[in-house]
Please model this.
Amino acid sequence: MEKRFTIGMLIGWKIEPELCLACAFAASSQQARFFYFYPKDVNEETRTITGTTWDGTQWITQTFDYPDVIYDRMRRKGSDQFGTIYEKLAQIPITHTLKGRSISKTKVYNLILRHPDLKQVLIPFMTMREPEKVIEFIHKHQQVVLKADGGAAAKNIFTAQVKGSILDVFDQTYIHHMDHEQSLDLMKMLIERRYCAQKLVQSTTKQGFPFHIRVHVAKNGQAEWIVAFCSVSLSLTPDMKITNSKNTFRVTTTWNRFLEHQFGESLDGPMDRHIHQTCLQIAYYLEQQLGSGFHEIGFDIGIDPDQRIRLFEAGIGIPSTLFNYVELARPAIDYSLYLARQSLK
Model:
């Protein structure tokens, strides 16, 4: 009879209760125990953790022995603020072993740029270092996105559009009309905050609504990359083109219905297969370049007017979701159990 494994999910702050419950159910379906905990809950002397577990009707707090594996949803290894927790738990298999929260956007872009085939999905970009160079980039492409190189969830993101001698900068709430000197001042400030620039790609539905597709790629119970789910976010306001911003009034639909209305195909049709194959190929390539210290990637992609896949970004930090919690949790739990089994060999 196989050992009944215990999975502890490490978190650093409050997360979506739906994800916790989805993980608990996914673990239960594999006859595994599951609890979540914070760094402060670990007692290194007794090798115990005060965690929260689902008893079938409610969340309860219990004291657990160190688990067989840790599903790391905090991902702060190497951080001065959280470093000691990883030292305390160093002997336990853990799902994420890369240092730091994530890989910067431009590092991922530059890695993909080296690949002769995958580079076709890249959108023109630049690391912002010199204000004048950034202004030149904006004028070359006319519409660009300015975003923090290490940011997530479209926080503090800007779009800039050339209007004659004026630059219209949209902060997702207000449009600011800036002359050359004002534009330079803005670029200087964003450079200090480690921003990058990317050409704005028109990814819109037939009805004119901007959209982006989240492709969540994850390792399964055999440590193989799979597409866990695809979801789409649409902006109901055509001027709000950053569809993963909290400031955007966005909606979603089922993936199969989106494929049907946008591309005239069903699941496993040409575009669906192309998206899956491309994102899986990028996942395997990034693992070759970065090592096997991660198991989830959240790809945000668009489809341009020529029906080409364009990569907005690839999040290796803590990819999340608005609705697909079960689809996110299942491979994460499966991969955690894979690591637990491998540790016994």
